[in-house]
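Take a protein:
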Amino acid sequence: MAGDATTIARPYAEAVFQRAVETDKLDLWSEMLALLGTAARDETLARLLASPELSRAQKAELMLEIGGGRLSEEGQNLVRLLAENGRLSVLPEIAALYEQRKAEHEGTVEVDLTTAYPLKPAQEQVLAEALKAKLGREVRIQAHEDPELIGGFRLRAGDMVIDGSVAGQLNQLAHELGL
């Protein structure tokens, strides 16, 4: 389903991105889509949005209430359009695709870095500079900790994934040994 959701979300994300560029409101759209995407990921809200008991107009109003005063007129129109087309559930994918396009436009790349232990700021800076040299773009690192990695790190930048974790090496060894 994730592939289907991405396929459905892509034209919406592209249209929003084009409009954001035209109106010079890239950051505003980032904020609105982040809010809507986070809300749509909530399990309780997702069940309500999938419920046949609510009309599409009611679902739109529910999302607009959640948005409160943080949605521009165009943001509200997007919610209504998605509700009318039964597509509110793809808001998280729309937000993610929009952020990818925005990062490309700005010449940046979002890097998801997971480490077993927290990195020191100097270590993170060295990694950011090395990635900038390799990727030819500004790098924004989102760091997370996962003690299950045991040691090392796992890095994801777009389609590139580097698993330098001890857990990843152990999994690879187990796979090679047929365990």
